[in-house]
Design brief:
- This protein is of the alpha/beta class.
- The protein has three domains: 233 residues, Leucine Aminopeptidase, subunit E, domain 1; 45 residues, no CATH class; 169 residues, 3-Layer(aba) Sandwich (Phosphatidylinositol Transfer Protein Sec14p).
- The strands form three sheets. It has a six-stranded mixed sheet with strand order 1-6-5-2-4-3, with helices on both faces. Strands 9-10-11-12-13 form a five-stranded mixed sheet.
- It is elongated.
- The relative contact order is 0.08.
- InterPro entries: CRAL-TRIO_dom, CRAL-TRIO_dom_sf, Macro_dom, Macro_dom-like, Macro_GDAP2.
- Belongs to the GDAP2 family.
- Pfam families: CRAL_TRIO_2, Macro.
Length: 508
């Protein structure tokens, strides 16, 4: 397709009229009555929105549009081919305007200047975040702010056509696929609200990003009914809120009555909750009183509540049905997709049974490469392994042995995965053994089982050695990696005594 061919020869000026709109890149199908109207489609097929989208590969400065986006650094002097080309074509006037009027642009902000000698009337400068696996949520929030602030300027200045170059850059270590998901869904949500204010949005790619956009764009802008149904099964766990903003439950804040008393009451946690943002460099906490004041209870969106009753269902019932449908979609994918690369990691497998006849699932933390593995496929593999056994009681053994920060998924990922899993996974889990825990793993477990999975709190057991498992799981029923045995022998000795009361404490 000429519009996305990275090797094609480009003219000096590229007119919008010469580019193919997204709605015309596939043969449209007629909607049929056989479509299941009960299915939930977060990004339904809308031909009117697709007609505003263009996917194109080339030099953004050659596009004859009202505005182009310039992804740069805080001082707007990024040493990249895109920045150098932009300044060369815009002339000294743009450099002078930036030096005199803009000067600096902070991460997540967007600043508008004239285009001067460019074909575009305006340039929208913005600074994408640096990506660090320790602060993923901060990077996601900053990147969302970039796109949101750019589109705000577009709307405020009555810009009808804009070319969006990817703000997330590999130069700042931001993964291409994750950045594309956030960018496209934010634009989708913007068009749903303000589509009448803009005529054309061009996703302008290069050789590095074009494949990701070709793969991900149909998930948020499906071009027909079939593509819409497929998209529902392939969307990531976090699809953002109604604006496309990443949902970060850990940052929800409720206000207590008479907050000045919080410090005096901090020593007692009864009747209180502690909200901790583990994704910040410095953890902060807010003590909030539960259920003591009407303002401490968050009311539902009245429109959502009204809508649920219009369809004869309470909000809880509707949420339960939505969760069930979502899990069924993941289950279908887990049964059909090729997950051999995840299986090859040998980080999750079924072993024997415990002394009560309950199947045992083993997870080896050290073998789980969070930074390189496809987390979506890892979640599908989890469903594939557990689905056959969760109809009845089962137990999980997690070897935390010698795992590092490179093996720990984010709290947000864990919460989303937990919320998607069917209720039987939580109800029938009878014990979760953490072998060789660390201070950090204990803190994480406490936080997760306090604020997200309180029903699992009494099912988690921290064990300092493998032999503490033998009170409920016979050695011949447990497949333990050799490095775990070696480490256990090193810190606990070849054999060590397990008190009877400790054995009793590890079983249900």
């Amino acid at each position: 397709m000429e519009d996305v061919d990275p090797l094609g020869t480009r003219p000096t000026v590229v007119q919008i009229e010469d580019l193919t709109r997204w709605n015309l890149t596939a043969l449209l199908e007629t909607r049929e009555n056989e479509n299941n109207s009960e299915d939930f489609h977060p990004f339904p097929w809308r031909n009117d929105l697709n007609a505003k989208i263009i996917l194109w590969c080339g030099d953004v400065t050659t596009l004859d549009v009202h505005a182009i986006v310039h992804s740069t650094n805080e001082k707007l002097n990024d040493k990249s081919i895109e920045t150098e080309t932009l300044y060369a074509k815009a002339g000294q006037e743009l450099v002078d305007e930036i030096r005199n009027n803009v000067r600096i642009c902070k991460t997540g902000e967007a600043k508008l200047t004239k285009g001067h000698k460019l074909l575009a009337r305006y340039v929208l400068h913005t600074v994408g975040p640096r990506y660090n696996v320790k602060y993923i949520t901060a990077a996601e929030s900053a990147l969302y702010s970039c796109y949101r602030n750019v589109m705000q300027l577009v709307r405020e200045n009555s810009i009808k056509s804009v070319a969006l170059y990817p703000i997330h850059s590999t130069k700042r270590s931001y993964p291409v696929n994750e950045g594309a998901h956030l960018a496209i869904r934010t634009i989708r949500r913007f068009l749903e609200k303000y589509g009448d204010d803009i005529e054309t949005i061009i996703f302008c790619c290069n050789e590095e990003s074009i494949d990701a956009y070709l793969k991900i764009l149909p998930l948020y802008f499906p071009r027909n009914e079939t593509e819409e149904r497929i998209a529902v099964t392939e969307l990531p766990l976090d699809i953002g809120n109604e604006d496309g903003e990443p949902v970060i439950p850990e940052r929800q804040i409720r206000i207590m009555d008479k907050p000045t008393l919080a410090a005096m009451r901090k020593s007692s946690l009864e009747g209180f909750e502690e909200t901790v943002d583990l994704n910040k460099e410095f953890a902060t906490s807010t003590i909030v009183e539960v259920g003591r004041h009407p303002f401490a209870k968050m009311e539902e969106n009245p429109d959502t509540h009204k809508k649920s009753h219009m369809y004869g269902k309470t909000t809880d019932e509707q949420r339960e049905q939505d969760n069930k449908r979502r899990y069924e979609r993941y289950l279908k994918r887990a049964k059909t997709e090729d997950l051999t690369d995840i299986a090859a990691l040998k980080c999750l497998y079924r072993t024997g049974t415990d002394k009560f006849g309950r199947p045992v699932i083993v997870f080896v933390g050290k073998f789980f490469p969070v930074n390189t593995v496809d987390l979506e496929k890892a979640f599908l593999y989890l469903i594939r392994v557990l689905e056959p056994i969760v109809e009845k009681d089962y137990v999980v053994v997690y070897f935390h042995t010698q795992s590092t920060a490179e093996n720990h998924p984010t709290m947000n990922y864990l919460k989303n995965a937990y919320c998607v899993l069917d209720e039987k996974y939580k109800k029938n889990l009878k014990a979760f053994y953490v072998v060789h825990p660390t201070w950090w793993s204990k803190l994480t477990t406490w936080y997760f089982t306090t604020f997200t999975a309180s029903d699992l709190k009494n099912k988690v057991y921290n064990l300092k050695g493998v032999q503490y498992l033998y009170g409920t799981i016979s050695p011949d029923q447990l497949d333990v990696p050799s490095f775990v045995i070696n480490y256990d022998t090193e810190i606990n000795g070849f054999r060590y005594y397990v008190p009877p009361e400790q054995e009793e404490a590890t079983g249900l």
